[in-house]
User: Fold these one by one.
Assistant:
Number 1:
Amino acid sequence: MLHFVPSYFELLLLIVPVFALIALGSGARLAGWLTTGADASLMKLVVNLLYPALIFRAVLGNPALADARNVFWPPLVGFGTMAGGIVASLWIGRWLGYSRGLGLRTFAFAVGIYNYGYIPIPLMQELWGQDSIGVLLVHNVGCEAAVWTVGVLVVSGVSLRQGWRKLISGPLIALMLAAAGNVVGLDQVMPEVADRVLAATGACAIPMGLILIGATLTEYLSKPSQLFSKHVTLAACALRLGVFPVIILGLAKVLPISVELKQVMVVHAAMPAGIVPILIAKHYGGQPLTAVQVVLGTTAVGVLVIPLWLKLGMGWVL
């Protein structure tokens, strides 16, 4: 159990470096140091090499994963909270007057997807140490399943079969290999030099990912008046940073889950919308501007609100 609850200011200091890296990515794009032509290759590097290295090292030999609850419950919770958020946002979006073709599906997808990787990972590591990352990454398997099945179905109408194909990726393969390595005790015999290479490679994943996020968002800054929509932004902030945190924290309080998974849920409850809906909306014929309004609005407000939810969640759930 957590023996202390950090102050609001201490929690704010933990998230400042995360948003600073996003700002640096935006600055690099504006300065012409990180061009749009480099985005695709750098993202492939992050997804197929850097992030899998981070996952493999975080899961292999992780003592928290010896608890069976940390193998069964995390993916189920990840899928349920994210898929439930998308479906609830779709229903609420209809109630608010959105319609198909005018942003309903993209609104539901963007609001339902919380940031489950690039912001939570450094936060978890700072608050509870490296071992907490393993449970987070297992949890994120369920999040990925929700994104590429329920999420893609909502935003585009593609088949379930097409969505599931997206799950076969470098991160999932790394997770499966690490889980198999835990069964055979690979961490006990792996050479130290291999561990150092994995550590150095994985350490690049989060900074590089955050810088790319900042660079990607910059293309929308040329028309700042479009970045805020009273109809979209306010509703997104109310749901993503108001209603959904209460539901997730309530589930964390009552579910028969481990302390490590409760920690994951406390962090995820505080998160703004994830950036992946912008990219998926572009690819699958959604409304990218709606996704941008959701992401930027919840992220801007999240800078101030995240520490509040973290403090509340730690005091109530842990």
Number 2:
Amino acid sequence: MHIVEINHLTKTYGRSRGIEDLNLRIPEGNIFGFIGPNGAGKSTTIRILLNLIFPTSGSASIFGLDVVRDSKKIRSRTGYVPSDANLYGRMKVLEFLKLMAAFYSAENYDHRIRYLLDLFDLDPDRKIPELSMGNKKKVSIIQAMIHRPELLILDEPTSGLDPLIQSRFFELLYEENRQGTTIFFSSHTLSEVQAFCKTVAIVRDGTIVNVEEIASLRKKQLKKVRILFPVDKTIEDFDLGGIGPVESGTGKNLIFFYSGDINVLIGKMAGQEIEDLSIEEPSLEEIFLHYYK
């Protein structure tokens, strides 16, 4: 079953492009990464899913419900952490969280709130306007998780969090996922996506250029090749097909990405005097940069 289905979704702002003909399926129980630089269309997609803005064309559904017609039903089963934690009111933290719980009709929310406050080391009696950006982000995370949502939509959720709290946050997300929560994690911090997510969609200029499991993506795509020669060489000396981005194309140390047949590469190196050779899987960040180059 797919928790989220997006079909030919397009959003334009006058002459400006938001997203264009975007198609996506997110399976139930997945931890799904949604990556791209600022302006790629990540937040536009999320705002349409939450019915905060309307699409120009196309459609989207969550839990099989239309995101425009059935947004109230969808929100009762969804948690959302925005990139900017803009919280309203001069309430204390605990007062605000109890108000949020009342919107969801969450049962036994008091114990849940106390547990999350302790986990994130947050003072319930502090007033929201007095909080730092990081502590406001903690409040935003807690309010999204009070009612144990079936789907968590996270838009740059770790911005402002210190490393210790980030670690606790990811442990909490893993536990929620083990209990059945599907997680949609939008970020431009690729190391987080690589470490946390099972599947990733790469967004470029408002469209999705690839969707794949991270383990598979790293195995079947580019290899990073480093060759150290005793004398200067250039990549052109070897007439290789499948050359991707080149970090060092001349000199004794050649470093480049390679998507061709690895046997061809090794064959081209046969008979060469080589001091060192390594072929390794690239990081998600390196794969991402390849798609953008």
Number 3:
Amino acid sequence: MQKQLIIIGGGASGFFCAVNAAKLNPNLKIMIVEKQSKVLQKVKVSGGGRCNVTNAVSQTSLLVQKYPRGKNFLKKTFKQFTTTDTINWFEERGVKLKTEIDGRVFPVSDSSQSIIDCLLNEVSKYKIELKLQTEIISVEKINAQFILETKNGQPITADYLYVASGGFPKIEQYDWLKKLGHTIETPVPSLFTFNIPKHPLNDLMGVVVENAIVKIVGSKLQEQGPVLVTHWGLSGPAILRLSAWGAIELKQKNYNFSILINWLGINENEVRNNWNDMRNKQSHLQLKNKNPFGLPTRLWDFILQTCQLNPEIKWSELPSKEQNKLINTLTTHELIVNGKTTFREEFVTSGGIKLDEVDADTMQSKLVPHLFFGGEILNIDGVTGGFNFQNAWTCGFVAANYFSTLQ
């Protein structure tokens, strides 16, 4: 009799498990169950609609450093399917990919639809059933079968179950999995932007500083890279990475904390050591007319204003006290963060199923036979740059590989 694999969640990990399992075991009957009316919604909005498929970091020892949670687990899963495998998988199916200078990998088309179409084509090719607008509210295992209760009252039965429903923001949303005996690590947001309410800096919305250093006061958390000024505060890769590494700590602070920004991305001592040479080279020029650091003009004007400096003063006329104030603002500008902003479509959580309860070689539960997990439902999250998708692809492939052994 044909065995039934039900996949809960029509996202990246669910689809990848389905299509690979179907290829590896044609005798398996597979259904993807999704509570929304559309599938692959995170894929669609990722990377501003371009879909940051993965990252060029391929060496496992370096790759796992991009995950604030799940490092040891991922050392095992990435041995089976890594970033290079992801790139090859999509290119073999006609999706040409490109690697950008920062290592992020995108479709050459710059459209997430290329990835979506590829996955949908595979689903169609292997005749995988898609069941939309079907929310699972409870799961029971009776003898060797899973009974899935749905919101519309029609139960679904399965011999194997792969849960790839994504991360949930509230711990109560994991209750149906706790009833199966699993432990849930408390979910907290990861990958969010910093709110700096009613600060004049927000008037510089759209300004990007390519290589700033951002440090959270009173902690060891620090990141360097691009920072984007928004109308509510700060975003950009450096901020998002900080939010991922600091997810638990910043939650404990209730998202109220101070940051120090080094707008130059250069050590303060180095700035001071080179200051006189730099100043002498443009001694005859006004501060407003010559920004020697390559900062965006609007930001430079803002910094001069913050330091209460006359923009028409010449560099040679800058008093030592004001000079010191300028260096401090450029290298240790303190800002008060009060709150965060997350984007619902790209929401990432730390927390989820405790990793000790899952076999990294198969993604199978150690507590419930034939129950599998993948993607963000696990206590795994990566920094921005394609790493969360890579975890999704890898989990899906590792689980699918298990089904290749079934008769």
